[in-house]
Design brief:
- By secondary structure, this protein is an alpha/beta fold.
- It folds into two domains: 6-53; 61-311, 2-enoyl-CoA Hydratase, Chain A, domain 1, CATH 3.90.226.10.
- The protein has 15 helices and eight strands.
- The chain has helices at residues 9-26, 33-51, 56-63, 71-79, 121-126, 134-149, 167-171, 174-185, 202-206, 227-235, 241-248, 252-257, 276-295, 299-311, 319-324; strands spanning 83-85, 98-105, 108-115, 154-160, 192-201, 213-217, 221-223, 263-265.
- Strands 1, 2, 3, 4, 5, 6, 7 and 8 form an eight-stranded mixed sheet that branches.
- A hairpin with a 2-residue loop joins strand 2 and strand 3 (108-115).
- Helix 3 (56-63) packs across helix 11, helix 4 (71-79) packs across helix 13 (276-295) and helix 10 (227-235) crosses helix 11.
- The radius of gyration is 21 Å and the shape is globular.
């Protein structure tokens, strides 16, 4: 994934110019602070203009940016040294595409689970580009049940193109692992907060996405299929991804309007990939606002509310209603 998008080329060119002027200024030969500030102001104005009018396909590109904060990036910012990673599904092995462990966010002891992508090619290969195998989802479920046993809230970070579709994953029960997570997450008796931080793709995202509160970052996406996959199915032409992205309504605003998510987290100027710290701060705000409310509920209240939340999604019409319309 390139670090520069075509739609923000003018921004990166000006940022490169700022770095050049800063180097000259720091050498002590000439004071260029006024010129640097003028260009910085222009860059900020361009970011507001460009990122305020992104199309769905452009937002999907931003959601996949290689420098977007990963689960481990967020854990470091949210927990510091107070995180202990836990591994393995106790059945087959450990899946590096999903990270899990015990941590402390503010005053809250929590279980953290999330998809993990890489920031370079080698790390992406090691993390399987954030696409979990069934053992990854079984590990996640094991951690959820462990959290329930000790009364710990669960914080989940979603960022995956989808579950890995390889032969080995299918042989080891990929569809069963996803379905089991969907069913059992509905019955976990501790609060679950989910954050779509980048790419929320298909059942691979939903497999750890059954939460009491589900939030999305402003320039993240959440969809039943990727835009390229949708275009390949509908038109047998993956190059029509832009049209597919428009039709899928994968933006945070679309999902909030449809009642799929509970809130949108604003991103730093120019996207979360430019400022991980600010992104982490937005997560803390939601945790501090919602976790005390959820922790005050009984197990029965939590499960009933979660059940109603997901049962109320979507609309349908029966045959009789269509005939009478």
């Amino acid at each position: 994934m390139p670090k520069e998008f075509e739609f923000e080329k003018s921004i990166t060119e000006l940022e490169s110019r700022i770095r050049e002027l800063q180097t000259i200024s720091e050498s002590g030969k000439v004071d260029l602070s006024r010129e640097i500030q003028a260009i910085t102001d222009k860059v900020d104005a361009l970011k507001v203009e460009v990122y305020g009018s992104l199309e769905p396909w452009q937002i999907a590109q931003v959601a996949r940016h290689i420098n977007r904060p990963s689960t481990l990036d967020l854990i470091k910012l949210l927990c510091g040294d107070e995180f202990v990673e836990l591994h393995g599904d106790r059945l087959f092995g450990d899946d590096s595409a999903i990270v899990s462990g015990l941590g402390r966010i503010g005053s809250h002891k929590v279980m953290i689970i999330g998809h993990q992508k890489g920031h370079d090619t080698d790390e992406n290969i090691f993390r399987n580009f954030g696409m979990p195998h069934p053992e990854g989802y079984r590990k996640a479920l094991r951690m959820m049940r462990t959290a329930e046993r000790f009364g710990l809230p669960i914080v989940i970070f979603i960022d995956t193109p989808g579950a890995f579709p390889g032969i080995g994953a299918e042989e080891r029960g990929q569809s069963d692992a996803i379905a089991r997570n969907l069913a059992e997450m509905s019955d976990v008796g501790v609060p679950i907060l989910c954050f779509v931080t980048g790419e929320g793709g298909s059942g691979g995202a939903l497999a750890i996405g059954i939460g009491d509160r589900v939030f999305m970052f402003e320039f993240s996406v959440y969809s039943v299929i990727s835009a390229e996959g949708c275009a390949a199915i509908l038109w047998n032409d993956p190059t029509k991804a832009k049209e597919a992205a428009n039709a899928l309504k994968l933006r945070a605003e679309n999902l909030l309007e449809a009642g799929i998510i509970d809130g949108i987290l604003p991103e730093p100027l120019g996207g979360a990939h430019r400022n991980h710290q600010r992104s982490a701060e937005e997560i803390v705000k939601q945790i501090e606002a919602h976790l005390p409310i959820l922790k005050s509920m009984s197990r029965e209240q939590l499960i009933e509310q979660r059940y109603k939340k997901f049962r109320s999604m979507g609309k349908f019409s029966c045959e009789e209603e269509l005939e009478n319309a």
